[in-house]
Design a protein that fits this description.
By secondary structure, this protein is mainly β. Helix content is 2%, strand content 51%. The chain has 3 helices and 54 strands. The strands form 12 sheets. Strands 2, 3, 34, 35, 36, 37, 38 and 39 form an 8-stranded antiparallel beta sheet that branches. It has a 6-stranded antiparallel beta sheet with strand order 5-4-30-29-28-27, with no helix packed on it. Strands 42, 43, 45, 46 and 47 form a 5-stranded antiparallel beta sheet that branches. β16 and β17 form a beta hairpin. The longest helix has 6 residues. The two termini are 44 Å apart. 40% of the residues are buried.
């Protein structure tokens, strides 16, 4: 109470609380129709197009889970076996189409960075950080560094590169090795036993990150540093096809017509990622900004994500152009298919299909943080992942049947589920729905129920949560799915009430030099004081100190989002009945005249009703009672004042009494002089009645003052205040 009285010494501004949502009670529609909405669901054999269409997509299934955290690179042979280059631990694994895993090679290095299969079935693997390339003969298993043939050792080259990022074979079976620190491409005649590597191409970039051959036999290479895409002829002469806006080319792909596609990340002139955590590598590692799954999670537990990716199209004739970009996803691998360009990305494990016009579709959600590599096979397209190291198979054609599972919708309260509205280009699909009362559908929800779209209710029991799924067959498309629902009406809630005697709300706010406003948000109980914070959701209402007014403010909400109306009641101590003070209040505050009620202790009751959103007789109400507060607008009574001269001072006695609140303090003035504070008898001022007994010294005669007609006559004036600053004055003349 004392803290609230101190609050009245400043001018106030009362702010509204904003309702959680403003929709009125009635039938509502939950709709999913945009790409970002569909992305919250789970597609399986369904493509989510950027224009908000669900259509059949390729089937994706998990083939194998490796013992490693990362599958950095993947290749495939003509028999459909996949070969995985892994890290943590560093191995080369052969994965059969049935998922059987055979370990071909293991290394003490940090990782096997790249893997490729030669025409004779031998496998070539590049390790990091040693930068060596090993040959694993066809049929060999469980080799290690001591038993595998080294076909490239950077220590035996003039520039001694420190990283190997990619491998590629030309049409004649020669192996090309992309290196970094410094950037170069080496060539090895692997068909000739004991052949030494030769420098094929050297760049002033930091790294050569990706390579592939076009149909003419030119080597296409992408760099890190300036983001250059090179075309290198058979003699090793390079030509820059494109200087990308970003600093690092992460992957390349080429179409049947010769169009080159490149993905890139990172701002030029700045490092977007820390160096790879490689032990024993010189200071050049400080400049490496290669975007890899390992880089994203391996730096002291911090997650570092560059500002998304861009994909560029470089046609054989014509100008390069940016065809796709995303601020959140990082493209790690590209591959061209007749259906469109596929991009493997992180950090959500998405596979995107990008069309020439820039439209795209999310065709697979993989259960891994990053999708990092592609390898084509007769069975389909192998996809390697990181965090965790898995291998998936993506079908070449559309799935015979695809399923899309929606996000779980929370209606907030128990609801009746009505008709499902579906916008579809055909009828070659089935719709199902289920409901439950816990957010996790796997915990005792209803069974899936087949639904007839656009016709009749779902036929589910009342529940708080709902989910739908659609099964698409070839030719079917779904553009939007909506479910009508009617929430059960729930009574509103009044969350808190704060009553502030001595505050008056003005609307509109008064303007003028004497009106000083502060923004307040009443929080806590009425006995715990008030905190002052602006409410950015509303324009403040001005409030001012006014001892004859009382302002009540309350917070309320309705789980249905109904509009609310309020009634304000009061009741005094020792009274039974609540008396109506004001009804049909639409604001969440109310100011009333304190002088309309006798001094004393009171409580307010706020009754909230959702009547504005319901038919007559169907409204629900709730109420809340405020803490006890005191009204005191009457000044104290001063009685029995006596004053006489005693030893050159005025001896004064008096009694002050208040009917509602304790006496706060008193002060006196002699001959209209300055006011002087005075304590009651006993010094403690804490009772409804206080006695005062004090001596007041006379005021000295001031120079130049008008001489008193009767120098022996003096005026003593006393003012007494109660705790609400109501004041009473009395005077006495002493001669």
């Amino acid at each position: 109470m004392i803290r609230r009285l101190a609050f009245l010494l400043v001018t106030l501004t009362v702010c509204y609380l904003v309702a959680p949502f403003a929709a009125a009670q009635g039938t509502r529609l939950w709709t999913q129709e945009r790409f970002d909405e569909f992305e919250k669901g789970t597609p399986k054999g369904v493509a989510v197009r950027s224009d908000g269409i669900l259509e059949p997509g390729p089937d994706s299934r998990q083939i194998a889970v490796t013992p490693s955290t990362y599958v950095w690179s993947i290749a495939a042979d003509s028999a459909g076996n996949a070969y995985a280059a892994t890290g943590s631990p560093a191995t080369v694994l052969r994965v059969a189409p049935d998922g059987k895993i055979t370990k071909l090679f293991s290394s003490k290095d940090l990782t096997v960075q790249a893997v490729r299969v030669a025409k004779d079935g031998s496998v070539y693997a590049a390790t990091l950080p040693s930068g060596k390339v090993y040959k694993l003969p066809a049929g060999a298993t469980d080799l290690d560094e001591s038993r595998a043939e080294v076909v490239f050792d950077p220590a035996q080259t003039e520039d001694k590169p420190k990283y190997i990022w990619d491998l590629a074979f030309d049409r004649d079976g020669r192996l090309y090795i992309a290196t970094g620190g410094p950037a170069a491409i080496y060539r090895v005649e692997v068909a000739k036993s004991g052949a030494k590597p030769s420098l094929f191409f050297k760049s002033d970039e930091q790294h050569i990150r990706a390579m592939l051959f076009d149909k003419a036999g030119n080597l296409i290479a992408g760099s890190d540093g300036s983001g250059l895409v090179y075309r290198i002829d058979s003699s090793g002469k390079g030509y820059v096809l494109y200087d990308a806006p970003k600093r690092e080319i992460t992957s390349l792909a080429i179409a049947d017509n010769g169009t080159v596609y490149a993905s890139a990340v990172g701002g030029k002139g700045q490092t977007t990622l820390p160096p790879l955590p490689v032990q024993g590598i010189p200071a050049i590692t400080a400049t490496i900004t290669i975007v890899q799954p390992g880089s994203i999670q391996a730096f002291n537990g911090n997650t570092v994500i560059p500002d998304g990716s861009e994909v560029y199209e470089i046609p054989p004739q014509g100008a390069p152009r940016k065809m796709w970009s995303d601020h959140d996803d990082i493209v790690y691998a590209l591959t061209w298919t007749p259906q469109g360009l596929l991009a493997a990305s992180g950090n959500r494990g998405r596979i995107y299909r990008i069309a020439e016009n820039g439209q795209y579709a999310d065709v697979a959600h993989l259960e891994a943080s990053q999708a990092v590599g592609f390898a084509d096979s007769p069975q389909g397209l192998y996809v390697s992942t990181a965090n965790t190291g898995k291998i998936y198979l993506l079908s070449h054609a559309q799935a015979a049947e695809g399923t899309y599972l929606s996000d779980v919708f929370d209606a907030g309260v128990f609801s009746r589920w009505g008709r499902a509205e579906v916008d579809s280009g055909s009828q070659n699909y089935d719709l199902y729905a289920r409901a439950g009362n816990i957010e996790n559908p796997e915990r005792a929800w209803s069974d899936w129920k087949k639904v007839t779209p656009n016709n009749g209710p779902l036929g589910l029991d009342m529940a708080r949560f709902v989910q739908w799924k659609v099964v698409l067959r070839p030719g079917a498309t779904v553009g939007a799915v909506g479910i009508n629902y009617l929430p059960a009406n729930i009574a509103p809630a009044v969350d808190e009430i704060v009553v502030v005697p001595g505050a008056r709300v003005n609307s509109p706010p008064p303007q003028g030099p004497q009106q000083q406003n502060v923004n307040i948000n009443f929080s806590g109980s009425s006995n715990s004081g008030v905190t002052f914070n602006p409410d950015p959701g509303r324009e403040p209402l001005a409030a001012a100190k006014d001892k004859s007014s009382v302002t009540a403010r309350w917070a309320a909400h309705d789980d249905n989002g109904d509009d609310l109306v309020y009634s304000v009641y009061y009741r005094g101590d020792n009274e039974t009945n609540w008396q109506l003070l004001k009804e049909k209040v639409t604001d969440r505050y109310y100011t009333f005249d304190a002088t309309a009620l006798p001094d004393g202790a009171y409580r307010l009751k706020i009754v909230a009703s959702d009547a504005p959103s319901h038919n007559p007789g169907e409204a629900l109400t709730t109420d809340r009672v405020s803490d006890r507060f005191l009204l005191d607008t009457t000044p104290p009574a001063v009685s029995s004042i006596e004053a006489h001269m005693e030893n050159g001072k005025i001896h004064v006695t008096l009694t002050a009494t208040d009917s509602a609140s304790p006496i706060g303090h008193a002060e006196y003035s002699v001959d209209a002089g300055q006011w002087q504070y005075v304590e009651p008898v006993g010094n403690l001022s804490d009772s409804l009645t206080e006695h005062y007994d004090f001596q007041a010294p006379l005021k000295p005669q001031q120079a130049g003052a008008l001489p008193a007609t009767n120098p022996s006559e003096h005026l003593i004036t006393v003012r007494v205040y109660d705790r609400y600053d109501n004041a009473a004055a009395a005077k006495a003349v002493v001669r």
